[in-house]
Amino acid sequence: MANGIQSPAAIEGIAKARFVHVSPQKARLVIDLIRGHRAEDAIQTLRFTKKRVAKEIEKVLHSAIANAERKAEDGGETLDVDSLFVNRCYVNEGPRMKRIRPAPMGRAFRYQKRFSHIVVEVAEHHRAAESRAASAAAEAEASKGVKGAVRKARKALAQRQKQSQPKKKGKK
Question: Which of 24, 93, 125, 128 is the most exposed place for a label (fewest CB within 10 A)?
Answer without folding.
Answer: 93
